[in-house]
Every structure is written in structure tokens, then in C-alpha cells.
Amino acid sequence: AQKITQTQPGMFVQEKEAVTLDCTYDTSDPSYGLFWYKQPSSGEMIFLIYQGSYDQQNATEGRYSLNFQKARKSANLVISASQLGDSAMYFCAMREGAYGQNFVFGPGTRLSVLP
Amino acid sequence: AAGVIQSPRHLIKEKRETATLKCYPIPRHDTVYWYQQGPGQDPQFLISFYEKMQSDKGSIPDRFSAQQFSDYHSELNMSSLELGDSALYFCASSLDPRQLANYGYTFGSGTRLTVV
User: Fold this and answer.
1) What is the rounded CA–CA span in Å between residue A52 and residue A29?
2) DSSP 3-state percent helix, strand, coil across chain A (nearest 5)
3) In the predicted model, is pLDDT for residue A101 greater than 80?
4) How far apart are CA B114 and CA A102, in angstroms?
5) Chain A residues touching B105 at Cβ < 8 A
6) pLDDT, tens digit, for every residue of B53-108?
7) What 3-state class would DSSP assign to B91?
8) What residues contact residue B93 under an 8 Å CB cut-off, 6+ apart?
9) For A68, phi and psi rounded to 5 degrees?
10) Which residue of A88, B30, B88, B111 pairs with A40 in a disulfide if CB–CB is 3.0 to 4.6 A?
11) CA separation (Å) from B35 to B31, B32, B53, B92?
12) What does the pLDDT read at residue B103?
């Protein structure tokens, strides 16, 4: 079964607008971490934001915020004030367990920011 | 700040050849992970090392092997290359996750392997 689901293969957003990228996950482990990574066309994987399963507040990092709804097992990424440089693939990933060794990635969402 | 260094950035090999990819983790990071990302795919976990010992194994083919050396750098050795091995290979490093639960990874820029 797919552990990370990203239902939007592609998204378009107008420059300066906000956009939400969806991510739902599946785990029975009470301890886990959720991550978002950005992969531009150059290929490198850039860490954006992290949310721990026990964190009480939603994570924020500059223009990025994570809408964490634990009961619904969703961890949507919100990008405010989109910029042209935000055009990239975005991967949601999960690390299970307090000592989880590896990530499971979702299929990714390709975001295109329009001028 | 120093990042994870991977070499080479690009590699072209013929079928049935061998390839060696190198990964130099962030200083003081003792755990290294390898991922394979095929064209249009999400990254898939291959293998990880902690303190020079294999700590976890994912979908790594038997034709591949890897090790971590005393300076914590790691090498992924790929033999009898197939066209399907063409992919972006990422290395990531972290401090021992048993010490810092839910600690994040830092990925290298990847090695793009093309098998022709």
C-alpha cells in the first residue's frame, strides 16, 4: 500500500498567490516525521520543512507552512506569495518510528508558477 | 556550511560496465543513505550505513554493493549495468537517528547515471 499519497501530479499558480500542495500519509507508528522537499529541474533535493508527529503546532519556515491534520493523516504544504523560482517538483516524505532509518517519498507534485 | 558532496555529478556508462559513485557526508555526520530516482519517479531507498556498518537495506539490486569507510564517506558500486539503472542517485547524511529522533536529512546534489 502506498504510504505517501500526493494526489496532484501538477499544479499551476499565479505569481504572488498562495498555493497548497496536498499530502496524505499512512502509518500505524505513533512516532513519525513528515518532510517536504523541493526538486528543481537541476535535480538537487532541497529540504523545505519538517513536522514531527508529536508537534503541537504547525511548522513554518519563511514562506512555507505545513498544515498538519493528524487525525486526517494529512500534511499539506502551503507556499505563500509564490515566486517564479518556486517552479519545481515537490515531494512529501515520511520517516517512521523514533529511530526510523529511511524516508518513504510520495510521487511528487510538479508546481508551475505563472508570471 | 558544508553540504553532502557527491561525485561525479554526471556519469555515462555502457551496458555491462561497472560504476562507482562516491558520497562525502557533512562533517560529523555518521550515517549515510543512498536513494535511486528513476526518470519521473520518486526516490527509492537503497541502503544505509551507520558507523561503517550497514544499518538498513531497501530495494538495492544484488548487482549493487556499498560500503562506508573510516572517514565516513561511502561508495556505491554498481556492476553489470543495465539500461534500467539510468537514474539520479542521491546520497544523504545525518547524525545517528537513534540520538536525534525525527532529525532531517541533507541530500547531496546527486549523480546522474546514464547507461547506454
Assistant:
1) 12
2) 5, 50, 45
3) no
4) 25
5) 35, 47, 103
6) 998 888 899 999 999 999 999 999 999 999 999 999 999 988 765 544 445 677 89
7) strand
8) B4, B23, B25, B26, B29, B31, B32, B33, B72, B105, B106
9) -95, 115
10) A88
11) 14, 10, 17, 8
12) 55
**Structure-block grid coordinates of residue B85:** 539503472
- E-strand ranges in A8-106 read 10-14, 19-21, 24-25, 32-39, 46-52, 60-61, 64-69, 74-79, 88-96, 103-105
Instruction: Give the three cell numbers for residue B105.
Output: 536529512
Contacts of A71 (CB under 8 A, 6+ apart): none
Of B58, B97, B110, the CB nearest to A44: B110
Q: Is B60 on the interface with A (CB under 8 A)?
A: no
Q: Does B107 touch chain A (CB under 8 A)?
A: yes
What integer is the mean pLDDT of A85-108? Answer: 86
